[in-house]
Amino acid sequence: MIVVMRAGAEKAEVDAVCSLIRAEGLEAFVSEGQERVIIGVVGIDIDRVAHVGTMPGVEQAIRVTSPHKLASLEHQRDRTRITVKGIPIGAGAPLVVMAGPCSVESPEMLFETANLVKREGGHVLRGGAYKPRTSPYAFQGLGEDGLKLLAEARAQTGLPIVSEMTDASQMEAFEEYVDIIQIGSRNMHNFTLLRAAGQGRTPVLLKRGFGATIDEWLMAAEYVLSAGNANVILCERGIRTFERATRNTLDLSAVPVLREMTHLPVVVDPSHGTGKRSLVASMSLGAAAVGADGVIIEVHPDPPHAWSDGDQSLSFPEFAALMDELRRSEYLRRGDSGRPRTVSVPATIGEMRERIDTIDSHLLGLVDERAQLALGIARAKGTDDHGHDAAREHSLLERARATQGAVLDGEELEQVMSAVLRASRQMQRRHAAEQRDSVRTPA
Ligand code: PEP
Ligand code: MN
């Protein structure tokens, strides 16, 4: 049941409702919205307190049909935003990129990866210290030593860390070392573990069980929420279907579906979701396009030799290219408000050429996009020459000249922009001439 208090209800009235609920052996979760207080009532035989609807300060008591009460939008209309070491996640905050190796293997590889993630503009460092592997013979992780290394990587880079907890007995160490506790797909139904994570206040990244429906997943979230921890982030990581082309079937529709059901932030894991390095970038962009609050991506300095999940881990240049792509699509906003960004230069000439080729094809596309819009303006103005506005052109060139890039200076940037403008004017004159010709020689 959800008890909606009147706007401006007194604190004493809220307390009286909570006391009555608790006196009946039920639990009351108070959530203070912008305008009014809402109290979620959880427990068995809730109808016993149906009369709270008539108490002072109460607007109405609504019987919730959704089985996941605390996670539901009925309980909380405002979307939850969780802030981890100053990074906002959810409720319309910019896309958050969590990235790092599948497993922490050694200090060197972890620190190297952490620095790369930081340099490329990632927000959270991931890394498994306790690995729930399908085979008991596979690498099981470095355990608490791995957590300590993660904490050291955080000290070096300032990136908060997310790591998977596999047993309730690890809770103390996780509260000490990590910023987000991951509950893995294989443990989504481990109710003891969920309750343990619910006892603390450290945010929980709850992965979807690979055989779980969205309802079951939300019920798992309900375990954490009802134990008292309101900081739950859901993570879609693919489900098992008949399809074998990918390791799992990444259910991107879960993102908009969850939007209609819950206020909790939703993150997508395209690495486990596809199992293939070549698919990670497109599914990351897809996740951002359908409204995910973040992505969590596996990156490794040497994917073919990774101790776990090498096939789906991005190399450093691949991760850097994906970050560029996310920024280009404006899913990632620049934290440094337009100041030029120092890119990481890949190790080999081949890799550098590959990045340059990608950038060049983006540039060609962007210049053409810009030209189409400029032509649109010329047509709207009905001009029979180019439609450029001299004052706007002038201020663009001035802005370019005033920009000091990491390697290009203002004069060089101005040359680039003036070439773009020149080509654009020429294109518009050509279209205007064609237009005039077609009017003169009707078909
Ligand atoms: C992981 O993130 O390393 C992991 C094991 O993921 P999942 O639980 O989704 O398989
Ligand atoms: Mn993994």
Layout of secondary structure:
Elements: E1 2-5, H1 11-23, E2 27-32, E3 37-42, E4 58-62, E5 82-84, E6 87-89, E7 96-100, H2 107-119, E8 124-126, H3 144-157, E9 161-164, H4 171-177, E10 180-183, H5 191-199, E11 204-207, H6 214-226, E12 232-236, H7 254-261, E13 266-268, H8 270-274, H9 277-289, E14 294-298, H10 316-328, H11 349-381, H12 390-401, H13 410-440
Parallel strand pairs: 7-8, 7-14, 8-9, 9-10, 10-11, 11-12, 12-13, 13-14
Antiparallel strand pairs: 1-3, 1-4, 2-3, 5-6
The structure holds phosphoenolpyruvate and manganese (II) ion (MN).
The total of beta strands comes to 14
Biggest beta-sheet profile: 8 strands, parallel, barrel
Give the structural class.
Answer: alpha/beta
Q: Specify the overall morphology.
A: globular
- Approximate helicity band: 40-55%
Instruction: Supply Rg.
Output: 27 Å
Q: Report the bound ligands by name, code or SMILES.
A: phosphoenolpyruvate, manganese (II) ion
Quote the distance from N terminus to C terminus: 72 Å
Strand order of the largest sheet: 7-8-9-10-11-12-13-14
Beta-strand content: 5-15%
Number of discrete helical segments = 13
